[in-house]
Amino acid sequence: MILGATVDAGAPLEVITSAIDSMNVKGVSITCQNAQRAGLNGKLVEVHLDEQAKRPRSIQEFVDTVEGSGLSETVIGRATAVFRRLEEAEARVHQTPIEGVHLHELGTLDTLVDVVGGIVGLDSLGIDRLYSSPFPTGSGVIKSEHGVLPVPAPATAALMALAKAPTVPAPGGATQTGEMVTPTGAAIITTLATFRQPAMNLENIGYGLGSREARDYPNALALWIGEENGASYTDELILIETNVDDMTGELLGYAQELLFDMGARDVWFTPIQMKKSRPATMVSVIVSRELEAPTIEILMRETTTLGVRVRPLSRYEADREQATAVTALGEVSVKIKLLNGVAIAASPEYEDCKRIAQEQGMPLQEVYRIVKRDAEAQLLEG
């Protein structure tokens, strides 16, 4: 459905078929038609194979085919990464070394076409960053060469686990949905996409349709295309807080250092009042989800707290980059704040300013003023 979504969004089908032809694979054809799924219009793109094309290939054969083609380096690199991710998942499912992986149904040439065609479609649309919503797990069973398998299929589930991908139940809690995410689709998304929704100005939408009509949901994949609006959105953070009323400032400072060293995004203290008007301190920590457990361990071990509060956190972040400014006081590292790709502010790095202040016997705030003035004049646009 990724391939169909790119075509529906405007990727020229002839560009995709030309890319497939460049790999010199035989017995493969692609058809595209307008269709509906539950009233939703989109493109149904199907890959057809003759008997020879149905012969199972290995991952290495797919990689060799891609690398020996006339495809761009970008497409080759992304396709190879997808195939290697799929190979790793299959090895995990069958509990075999990677060298011993056999793809079975995934070894036919439609897997090659789906992966390369989808990547070429995204590339032709000028998409340089890909984001994804959580995977719907689906429910029920499917039939395969190995017999009846649960949904999601073991290879799909392994790909989700390898990427630590977020998942959600089937829409509306539907049961017996069948397969909602294929191994090939999961391999492409877990390799190329980031699981979050960015803040963006929406410009176009394409719908790729699945081959079957589902009863409880539209069997379609939506591809939203647009420009990120400069302040990127993330919901992959958590806020962990606790209140303490019997610790010295030195002990709290030590805990803060440990939390920053561990990778916390921010740590701060807020004076509060607890029961019976006791003065206390609230410790607040922002971390990524994967650091939840080590953060709680530090707080439990290094503070007197008996418990912590944890809640999800969303925030917008301006893009930023490091630069070197040539100022009246010498070269200084600065952090540039970007909005919609335009530099709008410059913040001098503390350690550089501190060094200059000590070397030249100047007040630190004066060094900051001069460096900020010169850096913004040199590095900001307009």
**What fraction strand?**
25-35%
**Total DSSP helices:** 11
Would you tell me the overall average pLDDT?
92
Largest sheet: 6 strands, antiparallel
The chain-level structural class is alpha+beta
SS elements, strand count: 16
The neighbouring-strand order within the major sheet is 12-13-11-14-15-16
Which of globular, elongated, flat, extended, rod-shaped describes the shape? globular
Radius of gyration: 27 Å
SSE string, helices as H and strands as E: HHEEHHHEEEEHEHEEEEHEEHEEEHH
Distance between the termini: 44 Å
Domain count = 3
Q: Spans of 5+ residues with little confidence (pLDDT < 50)? A: none
> How would you classify the quaternary structure?
single chain
Can you put this structure into words, describing what you see?
With 382 residues, the chain is an alpha+beta fold. It has three domains: 2-229, no CATH class; 233-307, 2-Layer Sandwich (Alpha-Beta Plaits); 318-379, Ubiquitin-like (UB roll) (Roll). The chain has helices at 2-8, 13-22, 59-67, 73-94, 109-124, 154-163, 183-192, 249-262, 292-302, 350-360, 364-379, and strands spanning 28-37, 40-49, 130-131, 135-136, 141-144, 147-150, 167-168, 193-194, 200-209, 220-228, 231-244, 266-273, 279-288, 309-327, 330-339, 342-348. The protein has a six-stranded antiparallel beta sheet with strand order 12-13-11-14-15-16, sandwiched between helices. A two-stranded antiparallel ribbon has the order 1-2. A two-stranded parallel sheet has the order 3-8. Helix 2 (13-22) packs across helix 5 and helix 10 (350-360) crosses helix 11 (364-379). The longest helix has 22 residues, at 73-94. The two termini are 44 Å apart. The mean pLDDT is 92.
